[in-house]
Write the structure tokens for this entry.
Amino acid sequence: MPPGALVGRTVESVEARAKHLMVRMSGGVTLHTHMMMTGSWHVYERGARWRKPAWQARLVIECGDHHAVCFDAPVVELLDDHLEREHPSLSSLGPDVLVDPFDLDEVMGRARRTDPTTEAGDVLLDQGIVSGIGNIYRCESLFIERVHPQTPISAVDDATLRSLVLTASRVMRANLVPAQGFSRTFEGQPGKAWVYGRAGRPCLRCRTLIVAERTGRDARTAYWCPKCQRSPQ
């Protein structure tokens, strides 16, 4: 479906599904974008100066006196209803940690059906198990619950796994505030992470130096305290 198919349509709703944004239009058309690591949406009043150059804009939606501009998003596509239901990424998403009611039992079931050698850190990032958790929040949640990121999921008991997922949800919800001029809070650490981005600095609990290492199937950088989060080996 060409982008010109949006001209004249009305935005009926906007839905965030994990890291996917669904802009639902009149006539049964949905604009699907995924920011990955490079994309962003900006909203401007008509005539305001954009904060990024125009050549980086993938799409502009004009709504009255405002423009919504999508910059640098790797995924921008138009879907009709049946294509959305059959979409390989959207149809396989696990429950979103920020959507009520949050289906923790479904998350537990998906986690227990995965390869038992999968690392706990990978389980939190697997959008097919639980969607919406990014690297910062997985590192912080693992620290808060004292779970080493490389612990095989088979070695994490149900009570700990439930607490881990609920902590990630709780910490993310605590940061649902307007983006301009705010700093994140991580359960007792307003404006400061417990471990994320603190490699080589002392742990705020025990003063042991924080470790950073690329780990897991996607080699994402994890941060942890080797004393507070004991190695599974």
Remarks:
- The first helix runs from residue 81 to 86.
